[in-house]
Amino acid sequence: MSNLIKAEKYALFTFNTTSHALKAEKVLKALGAEFLIVPTLREISSSCGLSVKLSWENIEKYYNDLLENKVPVEGVFRVEKEGKKNNITKIEMA
Amino acid sequence: MLNKEMLVVDVVEKFPCTEEVFKKYEEKAGNCIMCSHLFNTLEAVSRDYGLDLEQFMQDLEQSIKKGERVIF
Amino acid sequence: MERIVDARGLSCPQPVILTKKVMDEDDGSLEIITIVNQQAALENVSKLAANQGYQYEVEEKDGDFYIRMKKAQGEGTGVKEGKNIAVLVKSRLFGEGEEELGGILMKSFLYTLTEMKGDIKHIIFMNSGVFLTCAGSPVLEHLKALAEEGVEILSCGTCLDFYNLKDKLEVGSITNMYAAVEILTSAEKSLTI
Fold this sequence. Notes:
The structure holds 3 protein chains of 3 kinds. Chain B is mostly helical. Chain B is built from 5 helices and no strands.
């Protein structure tokens, strides 16, 4: 997981409310997912200050897992860190 | 709490109680470790004097555990 | 200002330790003079001076060595980069309130610290904060990443002892109240969580 801490290319899930973020943590933990609870990047406007950081490959699966567990994900972002700047792309999930 | 990359000086400064362990090892080494190797790593000390690094570190940690109760 | 460390007759490593103590208080304005009367002590104090970014001169007088040390100005070797911030974490949860929220905020906080490269020098864990540095902690990976970046992770020995965690410490080293207070008061900025 320490790789994920330092990862400079990753995906972020944002949420509508803090309770959704808390619930997402529980669900992902139960699934044995590799993820981190992180503050929502300043560049992203979200209703909740907490996001889930995870590696890019897993997002589709975990996005659906969260939906199935009634945890709506507000936004999905691809983040690439370049020095101090973050390049952020919003992803539309099918 | 210790690792083999730590310098002798840092260990003695942080944990003065380890001084006794170094002194004990000086008898084995036949030389004043804290004079000649103060700015060397624990690993370098054990290499230069042919000490068992693991045992050496264990003895140091043991003295820290014992010593701490006295400090606070 | 001049500070004299008379270490004559003291055996190794005392002359170095005593000199280092004064160096730790030095904001660059001190001239430290350590007096020793043994070759080994002279060599070691000189090494310390070089190591800590001090310029030094040695003068011999009646068999005693006077080592005059002054912090090198500007880009000295011993000058630390970054801001020197110390953080005190005194609970395993961030703030008071619901346990669930406190836990998640702590994760989020420590993650943010991993992104502040170079500025944080020490993180000190006290009271139930020491659960965070021990086996089973939800933020072990965060702290290990910080330690790799050169942040010193310190746990209160009394607290580890009280909670029976002494053998469970997984990251960083043990400190006591003296060292902790010294770090917190000498840091450019300290935060309490």
